[in-house]
Design brief:
Blueprint: E1 5-10, E2 15-22, E3 30-31, H1 36-40, E4 60-63, E5 68-71, E6 74-75, H2 76-82, H3 85-94, H4 100-111, H5 118-125, H6 133-147, H7 157-182, H8 196-205, H9 216-228, H10 236-245, H11 251-263, H12 270-281, H13 287-295, H14 316-332, H15 338-352, H16 354-358, H17 365-376, H18 383-403
Helix pairs in contact: 3-18, 5-6, 6-7, 6-11, 7-8, 7-18, 9-14, 9-18, 10-11, 10-18, 11-18, 12-15, 12-17, 14-17
The structure holds carboxymethyl coenzyme *A (CMC).
Carboxymethyl coenzyme *A binds near residues 304 and 309.
């Protein structure tokens, strides 16, 4: 019996089989159960993949208990402090921090792919005028494959690279076109003399008649939001991208699938919920009522933006973004606005109150990003869109990693069948 194995015994008949333990460089070991069915006739039951590693990956590492998040081995704190979204994108996609030359080539390529086919603008204009920007995003990003079919051979590394650059470059253009269409605003085209983040904010807020300058503090806060949301391991939308691309589907369709998954309230909608909560509390005098409700065992009310399923120590992203949030609020002179007053007071209570301390219910990244977006005047229906833009590089990097993984297979989970068996058909007049 080898040491690096696990033996599974079927206690019903004493049958045994050995399975390899696969060791990661860091984190939990995994049992290689690929031959479980052929050796013992079992499948594993794991709804939501809570204990299942669906792939080997070198991109992102999370230790929720220790509050650690690393991209390609680099701590998120260092990247947030010293890097920018373009450099982080290069790191996630290619596995290395770029040299000067690599960085310039990368930025140049992204900058030169920001425009979209004019037919795509017409496509966006065809959506109903009250369409949610996420609904437009799902459709339009999927439709990119109809506009850029010169780069759809997923077995060709150059095609893959071109598709990846196009997706990253065009995402802010599509997102802001969707927003402007949904609000009856004229389209604003990207500018090659702006950086990635500045360009997004320019396309969001400027007018053909008037440039709206964006403050450095606001650009930096948004840059941090993008860096902190760039990747987060095998979450629902990333797994959706991997699963849909496992069949060989084109990257545009697969990223559209990722956007659809992210749209769900349990995934990308938390910062919107924070703003709705602040709006509902409305009056700072009401805060203690809501906090009491959140602490009451018989009331299922929860404070939005507090606690995290994985980060049980602290959310490292929240620690980073909190400072940028405070700087932005100071610059925006939000002191006497009740929503921000309520947010500050809730934060203070959560950091000082025994109930929240005991349960590790720290303000999470969504709490602060929601407040940052509110302070910048970004409408709520754009919150998840911003998340989708920032996460696009994570999705493409994970997709790209999967495309060059010799062990990758078409995703095909098994099931534990609990339905009827072997019924005889009954004609409709006899039922
Ligand atoms: N307000 C008040 N009490 C809470 C909260 C909250 N936001 N979150 C958890 N608790 C309590 C909960 O009642 C329980 O108390 P007790 O031990 O007395 O029964 C204890 O804390 C543990 O809660 P849990 O539900 O077992 O924790 P979980 O890990 O299953 O849930 C969570 C994590 C994020 C779903 C939850 O904290 C929550 O609903 N938070 C509010 C929604 C939110 O902000 N979601 C965004 C999360 S970040 C998303 C991302 O990174 O993509």
């Amino acid at each position: 019996m080898s040491k690096n194995t696990v033996t599974i015994t079927d206690n019903r008949n004493g049958e045994q089989a050995e399975f390899d333990i696969l060791d990661p460089v860091i984190g939990n070991s995994t049992i290689d159960v690929r031959q479980l069915a052929s050796k013992l006739g079992f499948f594993t039951y794991d709804p939501g993949f809570q204990a299942t590693a669906s792939c080997k990956s070198k991109i992102t590492y999370i230790d929720g208990d220790a509050g650690i998040l690393r991209y390609r081995g680099y701590p998120i704190e260092q990247l947030a402090q010293h890097s920018n979204y373009m450099e982080v994108s290069h790191l996630l996609m290619y596995g290395e921090l770029p040299t000067n030359e690599e960085y310039n080539n990368f930025v140049n390529s992204i900058t030169n792919h920001t425009l979209v086919h004019e037919g795509l603008v017409q496509f966006i204009n065809g959506f109903h005028n009250d369409a949610h920007p996420m609904a437009i995003m799902v459709g339009v990003v999927g439709a990119l494959s109809a506009f850029y079919h010169d780069s759809l051979d997923i077995t060709n590394p150059e095609h893959r690279d071109l598709s990846a650059h196009r997706l990253l470059a065009k995402m802010p253009t599509i997102a802001t076109l969707s927003y402007r269409h949904a609000n009856g605003l004229p389209p604003i085209y990207p500018r090659n003399d702006f950086g990635y983040i500045e360009n997004f904010l320019h396309m969001m807020f400027s007018f053909p008649t008037e440039e709206r300058p964006i403050s450095k503090v606001a650009i930096r806060a948004m840059e941090l939001v993008f860096i902190l949301h760039a990747d987060h391991e095998q979450n629902a939308s990333t797994s959706t991208v991997r699963l849909s691309s496992s069949s060989g589907a084109n990257p545009y369709a697969c990223i559209a699938a990722g956007i659809a998954s992210l749209w769900g309230p349990a995934h990308g909608g938390a910062n919107e919920a924070v703003i709705r909560m602040l709006d509902e509390i409305h009056d700072p005098a009401q805060i203690s009522n809501y906090v009491s409700r959140a602490k009451d065992k018989n009331d299922n009310y929860r404070l939005m933006g507090f606690g995290h399923r994985i980060y049980k120590n602290h959310d490292p992203r929240a620690t980073i973004i909190r400072k940028a949030c405070n700087e932005l609020l100071e610059e925006m002179d939000t002191i006497n606005q009740p929503m921000f007053e309520i947010a500050k007071e809730l934060e203070r209570i959560a950091l000082e109150d025994e109930y929240f301390i005991e349960r590790n219910l720290y303000p999470n990244v969504d709490f602060y990003s929601g407040i940052i977006f509110l302070a910048m005047g970004i409408p709520m229906n754009m919150f998840t869109v911003i998340f989708a833009m920032a996460r696009t590089i994570g999705w493409i990097s994970q997709w790209s990693e999967m495309m060059s993984d010799a062990e990758a297979k078409i995703g095909r989970p098994r099931q534990l069948y609990k339905g009827a068996i072997d019924l005889d058909y009954v004609p409709i007049d006899k039922r």
